[in-house]
Specification:
CATH class of the largest domain: Alpha Beta
Shape: globular
CATH topology of the largest domain: D-Maltodextrin-Binding Protein, domain 2
Number of strands: 11
Strand content: 15-25%
Order of helices and strands: HEHEEEEHHEHEHEEEHHEH
Distance between the termini: 44 Å
CATH architecture of the largest domain: 3-Layer(aba) Sandwich
Radius of gyration: 19 Å
Number of domains: 2
Length: 218
Amino acid sequence: RLTTVPDYESLARLLELGKIHIAWFSHASFEKLRGKRDWQVVCRPVQYDSVLYSGQIVVREDSGFQTVHDLRGHSFAYVDRYSGSGFYFPNIYLAGEGIKPLEFFSEVFFTQSHRSSIVGVLEGHYSAAAVFSSDLVYESGEGLRVIARTGPIPNDPLVVRADLDSALKTQIEQAMLTMHEDAKGIEFLGNLKILRGTSKYVAESEVQTLLKQGDSAR
């Protein structure tokens, strides 16, 4: 049975109560909501040929902004508070630059979608915005310029409670990780590739290995 919810807090509550067995979270909502909860990531999707992505801070191509420090006293758009590339990780980046958004920017907006943030920048409503890859969201990113990028962000996790029956957990993991080898799975992934660039799913251990390799390279 498929259940849809209005927000990630509701999703977390249903998972905790055992009303659902499997849940898709954004990576940012997973990091914020799991706390000490006994949750386990089953897998993550490979999207646009990668299990990792980065957030961007974009401005109009014809603007004079070259770095985030040039944005002092100007308006800034986020997507929403549970967006990895549209809020959570850009704020980590800004903190690393010594920037406190509510003090640094003249106004802060939440647009509820990456496309709305991008269109708002292009139309001059916001001086800059934190978004997912602009060239994938909006017409090859035409008219925009990237002035900053976040560190690597893992794609959205498929999550179960750790106390879920181990046999069922194994079945779910096996089904997801071998979907790209199954005829029906390939058909399903074909639709997902068009919608979200998804080609297959990989184990969490593989994702964490890539993140550790990235950390050691820096």
